[in-house]
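Researcher: Next entry in the queue.
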Amino acid sequence: MKIRIFIVDDHAVLRSGLRLLINGQPDMEVVGEAGEAASALEAVQDLLPNVILMDLAMHGHMHIDTIDKLRKCCPSGYILVLTMHTESGYVRGSLGAGASGYVVKSAADTELLTAIRTVAQGKLFLDWTVGKGAGQDLPGAPKKRMAHKAPGLLGQLSPREREIFRLVAQGFTNQQIADQLGISIKSVETYRARVMEKLGLRSRADLVQFALSCGVLTSGNPLL
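Model: Structure for this entry, 224 residues:
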């Protein structure tokens, strides 16, 4: 089954180029597109794409809040931000709002395609130009020393809490986690609250930043 992708960008020429690139892949297809946030919110409810590829800056405004709105309109879809902005504040804001990936427009075509495939699997993807220092450079993010404290902090978590921690950091919603683990949403919320309390975190953005700083989202990392 092909990855169904919806494009949100206010530049028609860019949308056309992305459509050609994506539709040229055997495992992907563009199912719709929009040039502004409002029409995108309406369209994704009907089309239910797997991945929503969106720009942050459209028509002179930043649309980080649109990420959360899109997730609510299309809970089964993952948001991949494609933007020219590399500032850490935008990365942090996007991840905190629920984005599963962040790629800059200067990235190679192959990196964008890899990002789409990665987030479609429910994994986190950060362009190396913003992800290299994301864990330690984002405003308010845990510092390098947190990496040394990680084994002790994560050691306080039960196996189920670690599982919840990983899934939340990867961008899964409470409903998706409940469905995947075969437990109730209330149980997920309870586990999630325990994780936040034990790790001393206040928001999902803090949790993602902690995960990045400790490297626990890296494939094969022994901490999880």
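Model: The chain has two domains: 3-132, 145-214.
Researcher: Noted, moving on.
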